[in-house]
UniProtKB/TrEMBL annotation:
HAMAP family (alphabetical): TsaD
EC number: 2.3.1.234
Cofactor(s) listed in the protein's UniProt record: Fe(2+)
Metal-binding is among the record's keywords: yes
Residues that coordinate or bind Fe cation: 114, 118, 303
GO CC terms in record: cytoplasm
InterPro entries named in the record: ATPase_NBD, Gcp-like_dom, KAE1/TsaD, Peptidase_M22_CS, TsaD
Family statement drawn from the similarity comment of this UniProt entry: Belongs to the KAE1 / TsaD family.
Protein name, UniProt field: tRNA N6-adenosine threonylcarbamoyltransferase
The entry's keywords: Acyltransferase, Cytoplasm, Iron, Metal-binding, Transferase, tRNA processing
The keyword Methyltransferase belongs to this UniProt entry's keyword annotation: no
Residue intervals of the Gcp-like domain: 26-309
Amino acid sequence: SSETLILGIETSCDETAASVVRNGTEIVSNVVASQIESHKRFGGVVPEIASRHHVEQMTIVVEEALEKADVTMDEIDAIAVTEGPGLVGALIIGVNAAKAMAFAHQKPLIGVHHIAGHIYANRLIEEMKFPLLSLVVSGGHTELVLMKEHGSFEVIGETRDDAAGEAYDKVARTLGLPYPGGPHIDRLAHEGTPSVKLPRAWLEEGSYDFSFSGLKSAVINTLHNAEQRGEEIDVKDLAASFQESVVEVLTEKAKRAVEEYDVKQLLLAGGVAANKGLRTRLTEMFETSDVELVIPPLSLCTDNAAMIAAAGTVMYEQGKRSTLAMNANPGLML
Ligand code: KG4
Ligand code: ZN
């Protein structure tokens, strides 16, 4: 038939996910089994626990995705799976499941880069118009990616230390907030005022790279210094100040890159794209611009398999195939 049905699988971190996507643009089913509750009491993702959950959930999640899509494996054109980057033990579960199914059902196998997936989540809500830029902000990544056509990715800037989400989670931990801390800081930030002076890492003139570890340390120092002096520090104001620094640097660099590369669209991607401050600032920034701003719904910003199927569809149409020799690759390059 003329339609392409791709089964996507994602297990790079703490979500076991499977999805069926039609023609790279339409979600037919999208199942995500989150493990957040199991990792919460440790204050972060425990790799060993993540792997174990993936093993338990993998088959259930795939069956549910096929069932909800009302299709059998026979009707699936190819299996797309996150090959990397991510936690190696977690990736292995998804990759091996995909290989086993591809072998058993004689289906093409496609290894997908996790970040390509985050970017392609946007294609599930809006047509992609090239050239475009994507601001990828997640727990593991902070990158500005230039795309001149489907399947082509040029990283024009990336973090030199912590990812934006990582900084959020570390600051939240210092403030005694539960994991993952991003949403909690976001909420507190809206109740406070950005009155604490914190640094902005602009780096060298013209650089699109990011750095968040200095900011993270500044927040921790501010807190400790106040404690030592016996002063009260308003956590809400500190959260608001931290968020303002992160959002200002992310949005200013994205805006500059959009102008320099003269792109048609700016796509937001990754878990930190759920941040209200970031979404609001970007929306204001591009309100009167000719550049189209695309922000996926929250469910497509955090890890899911529909985004992997969407990116995999383009690779499938471009004739890209992986062999059964494919391995999980935690250091995979975009
Ligand atoms: O993309 P994602 O689900 O997983 C990775 O691939 O890393 O991103 C998870 C990250 C976590 O660090 C979490 O704290 C952050 O996204 N996050 C947020 C918000 N919601 C999730 N950060 C800031 N504000 C939020 N509202
Ligand atoms: Zn992710």
